[in-house]
Specification:
This is non-specific serine/threonine protein kinase. The chain is about 25% helix and about 25% strand. With about 650 residues, it is α+β, with helices and mostly antiparallel strands. A hairpin with a 4-residue loop joins strand 3 and strand 4.
Length: about 650
């Protein structure tokens, strides 16, 4: 089995938040990917502008304009825009993810739609467009590719890449933009677009839904543009006789070459659609504009008039069906009905009308049943199946389940932080969603967690570090540690789940923990012991005391030394304090009157250094101490010098 080349964007983390999963679609300006918003844990569609357009300010401006235009709209029939930004040289736009198809996909599968289906889609499109027009936004690129049909039945209008603020004369400012098949005459000839230009594009879409083809075709784009500028869009019923007159008239009104003859905006067209909708759905027989000429518009806009013939019926503004003609086999005796056969003719005509109505009703019922059955199993609920739950299964088992459910399957690979390598990580449409039987479904096989770069966060505040590491499973509780080099609240180190320093690259959603500084251990040397203990306890450390010692320089009851018992120090670690007993003072012994042989050892044993006449060491018993300095009984530092004087000297 061969696999398609892996898109380099697959698995990439954008702006530290959006993990790209798979590609959805590619257009001339950007590519749309399925991604996971790691911060809010939801799936989104992320639209990334092509790299070769990154240096084109015009495209960049249009890309940002799409975000701003769509973000101003909050409507159930408009695709929501969540975010827009720049990651390195890559501009991106984040939108809600709608699994499903486009109107273009639907038309490719079914060629043309029924009037009822057309009304359903048109109602949603006009509702979303009305919200845009009310907000002063002209879409300028309406086409079936930009109408999204979600699997859950929602219909939304997207791609506001060419949207501009609406005014009476909103010019493109450059070459024609938008798809040529849906451009209004004023856009072709003058480059001017307003809300009525959107209405023209809607009318072309309605024509295409009802007939299965666009009104104008040509070998060159300019040939199609010429027809838009010079021809009147034909009635859909000329291609599809089953189109009701109301929709014929709606198309003619919305595609008038004169913008002033069209609806002012989508709201006006939506109001008229909802007026005629009950008649379209009511199963009545409607004359089409292929066999009727209107002297006035049913929809409030002028319609081209033509000469009445025997094959056509001239209708007034409120007429919807032709009046039955008299039978040729029953000649009229008087145009006013006053002749002798007038009553009989009236009775016979009434019977024929009643019989015709019953036959018509039966035909409509049978036709409705056949159409309803065909629709139910061809395009309605009966044609859809639920995508089986296959996440975590072996590919062969999952593929068999999908085929049994009625789908065709293609394989793609993608990374998944939760599903083991080689197992199925999901599908598109997702498991549990509704999808049409026989449609192609993508089954994703996990390659395991993606190995991605780990941001350098040492020295960064803890909150910033957690944001940058959003692609990983970072422990909620950080490891606290004292540090004299890293500020309080900043990251000292990042550790793996095994407690080892994290490498430069690590598995997506892999377990990590942060070591965060709580500042330096408070310095307490020289402080009063009680104050030092309070300061260390407040910092989360425990305190023990060593035996106090004399210190000639540190005052009594002050801390001489504070020793750590652990490295590195963490809250709860122990600090051992050694407290000073103050200077080591000793009283000078009374040795006055003693001979030097007795006095010298006593003074030395008391801890003093002695200063005396050296001759006393020669004849110790011959000399008697007359005085000492310091004097007898005075206190002096142990180890200090005492001067001894002898009698006779």
């Amino acid at each position: 089995m061969t696999t398609a080349p892996v898109d380099p964007m697959i698995g990439r983390l954008i702006d530290g938040r959006y993990q790209v999963r798979s590609r959805i679609a590619r257009g001339g300006m950007a590519t749309v990917y399925l991604a996971t918003d790691l911060r809010l844990e939801r799936r989104v569609a992320i639209k990334i502008m092509h790299g070769h357009l990154a240096d084109d300010n015009t495209f960049k401006t249009r890309f940002v304009q799409e975000a701003r235009s769509a973000a101003r709209l909050a409507h159930p029939n408009v695709v929501n825009v969540f975010d827009q930004g720049q990651d390195s040289d890559m501009a991106y736009l984040v939108m809600e993810y709608l699994p499903g198809i486009t109107l273009r996909d639907l038309l490719k599968d079914y060629k043309r739609l029924t009037p009822e289906q057309t009304v359903d889609i048109l109602d949603a499109v006009l509702a979303g467009l009305a919200a845009a027009h009310k907000a002063g936004i002209v879409h300028r690129d309406l086409k079936p590719e930009n109408v999204l049909l979600a699997d859950d039945g929602r219909i939304k209008l997207g791609d506001f890449g060419l949207a501009r603020a609406a005014s009476a004369n909103t010019a493109t400012g450059q070459a024609l933009l938008g798809t040529i098949a849906y451009l209004s005459p004023e856009l072709v000839t003058r480059g001017i677009a307003d809300a009525r230009s959107d209405i023209y594009a809607v009318g072309i879409m309605v024509y295409e839904m009802l007939t299965g083809e666009q009104p104008y075709v040509g070998e060159a784009p300019m040939a199609i543009a010429y027809q838009h500028a010079n021809d009147q869009v034909p009635m859909p019923s000329t291609k599809n006789p089953s189109v009701p007159v109301q929709l014929d008239e709606l198309v003619l009104w919305s595609t008038s070459r004169d913008p002033d003859a069209r609806p002012r905006d989508a709201k006006e067209m939506l109001d008229r659609l909802r007026q005629i909708e009950p008649e379209i759905r009511g199963g009545q027989l409607h004359a089409t504009q292929a066999t009727a000429v209107f002297t006035g518009s049913l929809l409030g806009a002028p319609v081209p008039l033509g000469a009445s013939t025997a094959a056509t019926t001239v209708l007034t503004g409120t007429a919807l069906a032709p009046t039955p003609l008299p039978s040729p086999a029953e000649p009229r005796s008087d145009v006013d009905g006053d002749g002798p056969d007038a009553a009989a003719l009236t009775t016979a005509a009434s019977k024929r009308r009643r019989r015709g109505y019953w036959i018509l009703a039966l035909v409509l019922v049978l036709t409705g049943l056949a159409a309803g059955t065909g629709w139910y199993f061809g395009a309605g609920p009966g044609s859809y199946a639920t995508v089986p739950q296959i996440v975590g299964e072996a590919p062969d088992d999952a593929r068999a389940a999908l085929v049994d459910a009625g789908f065709t399957v293609t394989d793609e690979q993608r990374s998944d932080p939760e599903v083991a390598e080689g197992l199925v990580s999901g599908s598109d449409p997702e498991p549990g969603a509704q999808a049409q039987r026989g449609s192609e479904l993508t089954m994703y096989i996990s390659t395991g967690p993606a190995i991605i770069a780990v941001p350098q966060v040492v020295g960064a505040p803890e909150a910033d570090a957690r944001t940058q590491l959003a692609a990983f499973d970072v422990s909620e509780k950080a490891v606290e540690q004292f540090s004299g080099d890293v500020p309080d609240g900043s990251v000292i180190a990042v550790l793996t789940g095994d407690g080892e320093p994290v490498p430069d690259q690590y598995a997506e959603r892999g377990k990590l923990s942060l070591v965060v500084s709580v500042g330096a251990v408070p310095p307490v040397e020289g402080a009063l012991a009680t104050d030092a203990e309070a300061k260390l306890t407040q910092a989360g450390l425990t305190v023990e005391y060593a035996d106090p010692v004399f210190d000639n320089e540190v005052p009594k009851d002050h801390v001489k030394t504070a020793d750590w018992t652990e490295d590195p120090m963490v809250p709860g670690s122990k600090v051992v304090l050694t407290v000073s007993k103050g200077p080591d003072l000793v009283a000078v012994p009374d040795v006055v009157g003693m001979n030097w042989g007795e006095a010298g050892p006593i003074l030395r044993d008391a801890g003093f250094e002695l200063s005396y006449n050296a001759i006393a060491d020669v004849v110790p018993g011959a000399f008697t101490v007359s005085k000492t300095s310091p004097a007898t009984g005075e206190s002096a530092l142990r180890g200090s010098e005492v001067t001894v004087n002898f009698a006779g000297f």
